[in-house]
Specification:
This protein is an alpha/beta fold. The protein has a single domain, classed as Rossmann fold (3-Layer(aba) Sandwich), CATH 3.40.50. The chain is built from five helices and five strands; from the N terminus they run βαβαβαβαβα. It has a five-stranded parallel β-sheet with strand order 2-1-3-4-5, sandwiched between helices. Strand 3, helix 3 and strand 4 form a beta-alpha-beta unit. The two termini are 23 Å apart. The C terminus is likely disordered.
Length: 168
């Protein structure tokens, strides 16, 4: 893993093997695979964020510039991880995208209430690459694409302003 502090890092928390493989393929297809780091549940995500246990070596497990996670996961849910992050002032600027298959209004409202920057419903088919391009643009990994492009096909849940660039 690259410990370059200039390289942006996305921590993707996903317990579903198929969803994980699809995201890894989408990042690789956009030539961004080296920016994606993975944990398989909320407990591992908390360990990563704290630099605890097997994640203590920050050269191998760098602190992320963006947390991308499912809402429903084993051990510790995405909402619990989100709540944990938002309860720590030192982590208040960490952007968090809830990335879920659920489009239930209660899940969406809960995520925003707890402090998600954005809630995206998992797209089907090749639209996942649009999510990766959006993330890349948000983190300045490439020029920002026009938000008016209909081919993006993203379903952002609820209208909530998010910063185009995470605060430093």
């Amino acid at each position: 893993m690259d410990a370059d502090p200039q390289r942006k890092k996305v921590l993707y928390v996903e317990d579903d093997d198929l969803d994980l493989m699809a995201m890894q393929r989408a990042f690789a297809a956009e030539h961004l695979g080296e920016w994606l780091h993975v944990t398989r549940d909320g407990a591992q995500a908390l360990d990563w964020l704290q630099g605890a246990g097997v994640y203590a070596d920050r050269s191998k497990h760098p602190f992320p510039d963006l947390l991308l996670m499912d809402i429903r996961m084993p051990k510790v849910s995405g909402l619990e991880v989100l709540r944990w992050v938002r309860d720590r002032p030192s982590l208040s600027n960490l952007p968090i995208i809830m990335f879920s298959g659920s489009d239930l209004a209660d899940d969406i409202a809960d995520a925003y209430r707890v402090g998600a920057n954005l809630y995206l419903c998992k797209p089907v088919g090749n639209k996942l690459r649009a999510v990766v391009r959006f993330i890349a643009a948000w983190l300045d990994l490439e020029p920002a694409p026009s938000a008016n492009k209909p081919e993006w096909g993203l379903r952002a849940a609820a209208a909530r302003p998010i910063p185009l660039r995470p605060a430093a």
